Amino acid sequence: MAEAGDIERAVHVLRAGGLVAIPTETVYGLGADAENSTAVVRIFAVKGRPSNHPLIVHIGSASQLDDWAAEVPEPARRLAARFWPGPMTLVVRRSPRVPLVVTGGLESVALRVPAHPLALSLLSAFGGGVAAPSANRFGAVSPTNARHVREALGDAVDFVLDGGACAVGVESTIVDVTGDAPAILRPGGVSREDLERVIERRLPVNLEASVRAPGQHPSHYAPRAKVFLVEPDSILAEGERLQRLGRRVGLLLPAAFAPPHASDADQVVIVAPDSMAEYARRLYEFLRELDHRGCDVVVASLPAEDGLGLAIADRLRRAAGPR
Length: 323
Ligand code: AMP
Ligand code: MG
Description:
The protein is α/β, with parallel strands linked by helices. The chain is 32% helix and 18% strand.
């Protein structure tokens, strides 16, 4: 965990144009000074991320929204007031303060105030915005603790601020307010229902609208193992079928469908928590564990797509997407 002096050290690295891994409540971010284009370019290089895929700019408080946005529509103000700090990102028109390298050339920018005490301390001490995607190689499972970051990025990151395990565990919900009506571009840590209650209207989930957003690629958030999605009552049979084909099978299945026996030598069983908050918090850890235990295929099912189930289902679909 972080020690005294770590915030100062992280600020120093950011000011010098370096990269800092920052803990947030969603996943760990790979951060750079958002106004230092050279530093931001390094993020893309380290991740292996195509340069036209925009980053989120993390800011210390909702009061800074107008410094980074050219225009803030009324629903965006309401959402920021209610959900920041928190796992919700707003896409607004960018102010001239945002370099185009951050937005992948777009005239919009994604902004968020993260709800993690260390991230907030860092942002407050730094004063500026921190551009950060998730701190993993492009396409891979996002890191939810500091060890995951070190394993994935090693010396490519100048400093890792260790804030423990992420409390939410899946990325932020991205809400685009640049169009005629607000829309969700990526489901995440704030549920669609909670957002709709605050803006008092329906929020379409518009996954197709942001083909440039990395979360929207066919395969993303993916473990090394190939992921198959089936109905929950078919998981065991599908697992057996794949096992007969000589595959090392991992099962990620709801408690109601779990077999009485535990994992055996050829099969790894992980029981998905009933609580969607708990499932979200541990989803990436499960996918990592299945990889670590040598599975080459994973069989899973989608949860009901309401509340946090919408984000979990989205990540599982992308993990199962064509490579
Ligand atoms: P990552 O942390 O790797 O998931 O990357 C940050 C996310 O922010 C991406 O997945 C994009 O979906 C999103 N994003 C950032 N800027 C924009 C923007 N201007 N328009 C739409 N989506 C954006
Ligand atoms: Mg990512």
